[in-house]
# Entry
Amino acid sequence: MLAPRPYNGSSKILFRIRRFATVSNAKPPQTFIEKVVQRYALGLAPGQTVRAGDYVMIRPEHVMSHDNTGPVISKFKAIGASRIFNPKQAVFTLDHDVQNKTDKNLKKYATIEAFARSHEVDFYPAGRGIGHQILVEEGYAFPQTLTVASDSHSNMYGGVGCVGTPIVRTDAAAIWATGQTWWQVPRMIKVELSGKLSPGVTGKDVIVALCGLFNDDQVLNGAIEFTGDGISALDIDDRLTISNMTTEWGALAGVFPVDEKLLQWYESMLKKTELRTFSSPKIGSAPPPPEHPRLNRKRLNDLSAAVLTSDPDATYSSHLKLDLSTLVPHVSGPNSVKISTPLPDLTAKRIAINKAYLVSCTNSRASDLAAAAAVVRGHKIAPNIEFYVAAASSVVQRDAEVTGDWATLIGAGARTLPAGCGPCIGLGTGLLEEGEVGISATNRNYKGRMGNPKALAYLASPAVVAASAVKGYICGPDHLQDQSHFSSQVPGYSITSSSVASSDAARKEQAVISGFPKVFSGRLLFAPQDNLNTDGIYPGKYTYQDDMTLEQQAKVVMENYDPSFAPMVAGLTRDLSTPSANANSKRGVILVSGYNFGTGSSREQAATALKSAGVPLVISGSFGDIFKRNAINNALICMECPELVRDLTEAYTPQQKRGNGGLRGELTVNPGWDIEVEMATGSVVVTTDTGEKRAYSVQPVGPSVQELWTCNGLEGFVLQKLKSEAV
# Structure
């Protein structure tokens, strides 16, 4: 089976959208996602149809920010804005560093709350829960709407038929100020789920298997629509888990259809809402209780009466299939979601663990806690094993307390944490120490994500995590009950069609605008690694230290990947500090890396830290879309050159393969090459350590990206526009 080539989309930003959306007398067929985006696109002329690849201005239903609200406030003020365009559009949820009780963090939280109160923004304090869970519980993420968040796991909203997609902090500030931001509609991917899961197999196993089976960037930067007869048997909690981890799979959205099961789930949500207000027909003359602003009868009736579906002849770049009936429990890792192993294979190895985690927005809902409680009931957590549990929200914890599941987990020896992100983001109690092994029901197991970079992290379903905590090694619940075990087998899967855009499209010369360098040049450094994620580029432990200066960011850049990177770049930039003879040249260290560079979380500092360190240009085989968005918004240039990556890999890596450092084991290779990139033509010339010159080519960046660079990013661009309008 041949995997599709990684998709390499254009990175141009175009702010006048009228010239981009498709115009036709006969309306072209659309996918579900395209139809939803059509509803939220601004400035479309009659007959214009939103399609994959279009750049559009969008006005999303809601925009959520969490602990990163502080930096968004700073950006909001820096661009000269004084009021939020639509206070009901914004939602603030404090969820990441909720265990941190220092005066500094409490002051930060108080500042965010005060800002919310003064601007009449919906605010959820620390302890209420994880933002993504709150948005589902409170109806901000609602079927057939478009809701964004300044967090990469906004994909989760797709579990309830909402097009959820991540934005970055600068985008959030722009939405606060204007109600809108730009978005490029991703390529559309159909993922067909057939059959029915066997008992003991969960939604977590589905997405862990998908990440491992289709692990060659088949869905990178795409928008997934789940289809097939297997969906009707998936509970909504399973759908939320699957959509949540489409982020790790590389997608920008992962959306399930609006079906009868989802509508019935919302009926049960309405009943819960009514119970909150003590609604009763026997109240008599008493006034009716207030209606929930988002979860109410009228909204649900309107949804039921106008359910959207994809057109039968809608266009998809790829069609992937998975037979759910052939799936067994799977475990992800260690330290990569692209490694997925059937549970029986790992159980046979009796991999000892030190810590287990049932936390995060992925798998800490009431059904997850119930599954774990069922496993540990009548057992105790193994000696010397730490088992950490946190509910996805205070509502979830209350439900688990009512059913007795919370008490069961505590009675077995679980250590409870407040509702929040905690260990999943590498914050608070219970992080993995050097040499330790952990198994978690979270969504990411990147090196250093949950603690020390020299620890090993695996991902699995809540039941497998709980069973492993009881036994002390990775195993499933059947090993506690002495029942027949799952047999290892390869799930039935395939790619039946693909028409992925080629990266070899003709490259057109671009005019270079005034103020933008005609040439980028300097010493080339090579990081021989695919999927170098944002945790590797900028460690999570620094992400919410909002007072980190750019200079401080530069000193810790790539720390989780290669601690020697920052001092190496600092030394090279000192050598390059002599002014260039060419006034139109931008000099610095040019970083070259593998495919899907910058995958992972939406942290903006991954881009700003590289730029501040003296890296003005990153060249890779392909980029994670969120990183590319952050880079564009912060004036860090990104270009794709698979041929250069190939040649460096062949010359400087063991077995000519990325992933194991250089020939001497170094994680960052300094081959002694100099590089020069012509911005108008995309011509790349490298001079090797022997003086040989080699030529390559890249797609030149367009005038919109150039203009952002001259303004030092989107923030400066918006500020300039606001000043212009004021004049």
Summary: The chain is about 30% helix and 15% strand.
